[in-house]
Amino acid sequence: MIELRLHVVMAERRINMTDLEKLSGVNRNTLHRMYHGKAARVDLEVIDKLCHALKCEPGDLFNYEK
């Protein structure tokens, strides 16, 4: 199972949803679904924008659990 870790990365960087929306250009609804682990799929473009805004790697946003 793949777990979304956006909430963890945001907490580590002390950034809120509104600021991340402005920095990344990602729609607030998409961020909300990812933050709460409700997103069924995520476009590579969204991952790219989030990594750029949060200065992180894609692996920081996801965790794989068997």
List the helices and strands and how they pair.
Layout: E1 2-4, H1 6-13, H2 17-24, H3 28-35, H4 44-54, H5 58-61, E2 62-64
Antiparallel strand pairs: 1-2
Account of the 3D structure:
This protein is mainly alpha-helical and 66 residues long. It has a single domain (2-64), classed as 434 Repressor (Amino-terminal Domain) (Orthogonal Bundle). 59% of the residues lie in helices and 9% in strands. It is built from five helices and two strands; from the N terminus they run E-H-H-H-H-H-E. It has helices at residues 6-13, 17-24, 28-35, 44-54, 58-61; strands at 2-4, 62-64. A two-stranded antiparallel sheet has the order 1-2.
The strands making up the biggest β-sheet line up spatially as 1-2
Strand content: 5-15%
- Spans of 5+ residues with little confidence (pLDDT < 50)? none
Radius of gyration of CA atoms, rounded to a whole number: 11 Å
Distance between the termini: 6 Å
Residue-averaged pLDDT: 96
What is the CATH top level name? Mainly Alpha
| CATH architecture descriptor text | Orthogonal Bundle
CATH superfamily: lambda repressor-like DNA-binding domains
Large-scale geometry: globular
Which topology does CATH recognise? 434 Repressor (Amino-terminal Domain)
Put simply, the count of helices is: 5
Domain HTH cro/C1-type: 12-61
GO molecular function: DNA binding
Protein name: XRE family transcriptional regulator
Organism: Pseudidiomarina marina
